[in-house]
Amino acid sequence: MSTILEIKNLAKTYKSGDRHLTVLEGINFTLNAGDTCSIVGPSGSGKTTLLGLCAGLDRASTGSVILNGIKLDNLSEDERAQVRNQYVGFVFQNFQLIPTLTALENVMVPLELRGERNVQKQAMELLGRVGLAERHDHYPTQLSGGEQQRVSLARAFSNRPTILFADEPTGNLDEETGEHVEQLLFDLNREAGTTLVLVTHDLELAEKTQRIIRIKGGHVVSDTGAPEIIATRDAEQ
Length: 237
Ligand SMILES: Nc1ncnc2c1ncn2[C@@H]1O[C@H](COP(=O)(O)OP(=O)(O)OP(=O)(O)O)[C@@H](O)[C@H]1O
Ligand SMILES: [Mg+2]
Fold this sequence. Notes:
Rossmann fold; six-stranded mixed sheet; 8 helices; binds adenosine-5'-triphosphate; ATP-binding; AAA+_ATPase; nucleotide-binding
């Protein structure tokens, strides 16, 4: 099995004025290609920060992130953007759609960046998969929170990511739409082998992933389903 993500002794400290706030410290884990993993923990424990570091959106203060064999630590902003565009899908907790673009245009952006053909047709298909084909010409402000979340998912799927990070992907959705989105995520994992890393407060969703990493106060407090833990457990039996 090939390693898709390797996190080594990761820490993130924010500076505000002359104060330092350590948000994450001593984080270590490895994911294999095709894994499904949830990151859970209380509000403010560092989940979104961790996801952003894993995806190369932000840089760690110390430690290392190796994504698909590429060490992100010393890459420039542009180089990290290239890695993201090639391998990573990201669903933001606050969606981060471009307000001046319609739903369709938002989904088209990653496809255009990759220089793909039939961009509009592909983007329409993706919007259809999240049940929003009819709202394609609406701007983010004309969409509900749940609808924006689904556009954000369609955009994250659009570059057929090797690894998809989703921050509370069902957090703003009603039960039925949430289940549909869950289905889409796990279909993507099964059909395309996309590695899934989800941040969620929904323990039912977390339990559907192979692995649950629990963080508290910026530290990993438990990591169930990690291959090394299962190996140790098996060896003990
Ligand atoms: N840019 C920043 N500057 C300073 N502090 C930050 C910054 N970003 C995040 N933090 C702090 O880091 C901590 C972790 O934030 P983070 O957003 O990762 O939490 P979270 O686990 O995702 O919480 P939630 O479940 O509420 O989304 C918080 O205390 C937050 O205030
Ligand atoms: Mg968060």
